[in-house]
Amino acid sequence: MDDKSPNFDGAHPDNKDHSLVSNGRNSQPLSHGLKIIQNIGFLYQEYRDTSKQQEIEQRRQRENLSPVKTGTLAAGSAVVSPPVLQLQLRNNTHSLSLWQNLEAVLASGLLNQLEPKEIIMQETMFELITSEASYYKSLEILETHFLRNPLLVNTLSQSDMHFLFSNIEEVMKASERFLMDLEHRIEESIWISDVCDIVHHHAVEHFSVFITYVINQVYQEKNYRRILEGNQRFRETMFLLENHPHVRGLSFTSFLILPFQRITRLKLLVQVSLTTIVKECNEGVRKMSRTEELISISQTLEFKSKSVPIISHSRWLLKKGEVQLMAGPKSNRTMRSRKLYQPVYLFLFNNLLLVTKRSGEKFHVLDSCTRAMLRTEDLEDHGQLLANVFNLRLLENQEDRNVNYMLKATSMSDKLRWMCALTPSRRTRFMSTSSHQPDSPQVQCIQSYSAQEPDEISTEMADVLNLLECTDDGWMMGERLHDGERGWFPGRVVEEIQSKEVRAQNLREAFKIQHAHEGGKHKDLTFKALLSPLVEVTLNSLTHL
């Protein structure tokens, strides 16, 4: 174990009977009989999908979700939930074993002494330990089956090996140290006193290697596609390795993204300790992607007169795309003529708008304006002829003039997305969590979604978002509760949280974590303190079963 590891004490602080269990005849070195890693019969990818679905079903059961008839969401966007699962996790092919089913726990008589709230807390901490073992098992396959496989190594240059695997060996060492300390904690006693102290220690001392790995994933994905397309030997070898029974039908890329998936999952389990690490990972990835994107865009722009420097550390792309610019007289007769519309291509950055005309691979800049000097007006109330049309006003353009553009979007959702992006101070249909409103619409993700445009947000199963906007053609804008990220996503990947009590509980959990992090109190937080709101809701659900 690492020399810097703290001296973790496993005694239960509140109950003398529990203390006897910890230190008396019922105290057993569980891992000798448990052998966590060896006994994990499935890979982390298999566990992760199942655990996400269980999280969704538990939230459904907490609010006793029924088929949606009417509500806040756009018509056709709500998903009717299937029969909900029982509250407690069930053992199946891809689920973790339960703490309460361990032979040592059953033999100790603890289950007869503990309150349901305490059992749930034990299960939650035990899941963190066993899921970490499952994650490490998957990392071992990445190392032995891919990284150190001579068949694969012989198809790649040294630089390509680095592009694909980055610092995965350092990540494995950090994960091994972390798992060793978690196993040591469960060796101390069948009663798990806490794990948040261990998570915090490793987040501070060792988890910085995740930042390097996640940042490099931008290049990792691009180079993997490049090698796959241009290296036939690699392609043939990878086909054989991915079809080996050892990997259970999982793709090579599902192993490469393991560190990112694990660090974000750990953050959800112990939010405060890992907030900084995950934030730095996300920021690192964003900076790399944004810089590459700015360089690429700047190479395609052509300025007629005064050029605007595009590449800047404080600038990034928010949205780009083609809209139709209306020209000429604005009478009903002329508006029926499609000739009065000409395509223009907009590049919207966080602090700048470029109005351009596309010519092949180049974009000729027609106008520009700082984002703070933009105003929009919806023209929907002016009749069907102005459907999907809005006014864009540049209060002070590149020539210091006030200019109006009448723009036509491809759809209602496209128009709303442009208006929200161009004028961020524009009032949304629903309130943000930062407004501290007592209740706002919320949705939970029932399937993952990968953002396709800069103004979209990538979501994972079981993410909870505060709803800000929704359109009749199935798009929504939301703010994710656990990190405040905003963006658009299709309504088909979410379902509405109808229970006011569950929505309020979700907000309380988010505010509690936010305030604890801002106040720098995470060193003193225990796992019990972080999860007590979740346990409270779970117990409330139990009483209604």
Shape: globular
Going by helix content, strand content and strand pairing, the class is alpha+beta
CATH superfamily of the domain at 32-72 and 88-291: Dbl homology (DH) domain
Q: What's the architecture of the domain at 32-72 and 88-291 in CATH terms?
A: Up-down Bundle
- For the biggest β-sheet, the strand order reads 1-5-4-3-2-8-7-6
CATH class of the domain at 32-72 and 88-291: Mainly Alpha
CATH topology of the domain at 32-72 and 88-291: Dbl Homology Domain, Chain A
Largest sheet: 8 strands, mixed
Q: Give the percentage of residues in beta strands.
A: 5-15%
Helix content, binned percent: 40-55%
Distance between the termini: 45 Å
Query: What is the alpha-carbon Rg in Å?
Result: 27 Å
The number of helices is 20
Strands, total number = 13
Unreliably modeled segments: 1-34, 65-94, 329-335, 520-545
Mean pLDDT: 77
Can you describe what's shown?
There is one protein chain. The chain is 46% helix and 15% strand. It is an alpha+beta fold and 545 residues long. 33% of the residues are buried. Among the domains are: 32-72 and 88-291, Dbl homology (DH) domain (Dbl Homology Domain, Chain A, Up-down Bundle); 304-422, PH-domain like. It is built from 20 helices and 13 strands.
